[in-house]
Design goal:
The chain has two domains: about 200 residues, no CATH class; about 180 residues, no CATH class. Helix content is about 50%, strand content about 15%. The chain has eleven helices and nine strands. The N terminus is likely disordered.
């Protein structure tokens, strides 16, 4: 479907190679000192000859070490006129490498912590938790990254250039505060407006929805816990888009287990046209569940609001509540969602662009004639 419109599915986002723009904003501001990174619809800082972006979210040449290398080379070039000998040049290179690595690590760590995850895991780039959008998240993430970049650069470059530690420290703090304030405000405003665009609160990026009717996938009985506890309203935070569908995370839907041996319940529910709601860490951590929930969106688009909220959503929710996990996985609303989603992603799966489909966990089966007849009847009615 995407190839007919010359679009590229990059898993995290959809890219238009003709316009040179993504259809949705990047979830991360990795280089707060680079004005190009604040255009979150662009590709790789508008520099595709240097960078690649295989996921559509995080640009990079290879990994954190290469980012550090590039930062070192850039700092070396910017201070080339002040270099007096090999060791001083190595010093400038080291400052650039360290500041770039720390900036990315701290920014990612803060984002992970804000999303309910571990700062250390985020710093190392292994966390699936994201601070999402909203002014406050952008302010803290962009501000911390901006301060780190300027502070480390000015202190390090000052010492390498021969300044005393006190002077270098004062320059680092002064420029760090300015850089952090600028980056924080810009990131905050972008995050806030992105949240508004997706129906969330400007300040914290959250949205409240009623749980009266939804399609669900329950891993570990989290949906049953919500029902048994009488929870009928969900507060979630906007964290990004999946195939141009807004995604929200909530601790009420559980946490994705990112540590080996950790056992956790987490679930996903789909409320189109609002979006997909999942447990914390699921958006970046469980592609299988995200693709399954996207299948429910495809059901909504294919059969309409009446069929979805009149038949699919209530029967899916009832199955999640009353059936076992294995039975729910094979229930017709779920296997049919998998069928639609699998066929949507099949061209990219066949080409090896995205991971293979897990047929055991997400069985694929087309809808039978009886249920198709029911959906067609509901589609012709005007209930909702």
């Amino acid at each position: 479907m995407l190839t007919e419109f010359n679009l590229v599915n990059m898993n995290g986002r959809v890219y238009d190679p003709v316009l040179g723009r993504f259809f949705s904003p990047d979830n991360f501001v990795q280089a707060p000192d680079n004005s190009q990174n604040f255009n979150r619809y662009s590709y790789c800082l508008n520099n595709p000859l240097k960078y690649t972006d295989p996921s559509g979210n995080l640009f990079g040449v290879d990994d954190l070490f290469m980012v550090a290398f590039v930062g070192g080379v850039m700092n070396l070039a910017m201070n080339s006129l002040d270099i007096d000998g090999f060791w001083q040049g190595l010093g400038f290179f080291s400052v650039g490498a360290i500041s770039s690595a720390l900036t990315m690590g701290i920014g990612s760590g803060i984002s992970s912590w804000l999303g309910g995850g571990n700062f250390g895991a985020g710093f190392m780039g292994v966390s699936t938790y994201s601070g999402g959008f909203g002014f406050l998240s952008g302010l803290l993430t962009g501000g911390s990254a901006g301060f780190t970049m300027e502070f480390v650069s000015y202190v390090g470059n000052g010492i390498v250039a021969g300044k005393d530690f006190g002077s270098a420290l004062r320059e680092g703090v002064y420029n760090g505060v300015i850089g952090g304030t600028f980056s924080g405000l810009i990131s905050g405003l972008i995050g806030g407006f992105c949240a508004i665009k997706n129906g969330a609160n400007f300040w914290n990026g959250t949205v409240d929805v009623n749980l009266s009717n939804y399609a669900a996938n329950d891993k570990g009985g989290k949906i049953k816990d919500l029902i048994n506890n009488g929870v009928n309203k969900l507060r979630a935070k906007y964290v990004g888009d999946f195939e141009n569908v807004s995604v929200y995370e909530s601790s009420a839907l559980g946490h994705y287990p990112i540590m080996e041996g950790e056992i956790s319940k987490y679930s996903g529910i789909t409320l189109p046209p609002v979006g997909i709601f999942v447990g914390q860490g699921v958006y970046l951590g469980d592609l299988g569940l995200m693709r399954h929930e996207f299948g429910h969106v495809l059901q909504y688009l294919k059969h309409g609001v009446n069929a979805y909220y009149g038949i699919i959503a209530p029967e899916s929710a009832a199955s999640a509540i009353f059936n076992s996990i294995e039975q729910h996985f094979h229930f017709w609303t779920e296997s049919y969602a998998n069928y639609l989603s699998f066929n949507y992603f099949k061209p990219q799966i066949v080409k090896g662009v995205i991971p293979l489909w897990n047929f055991k966990e997400y069985p694929v089966k087309n809808i039978n004639l009886f249920n198709l007849f029911r959906l067609n009847i509901a589609k012709s009615l005007h209930i909702f």
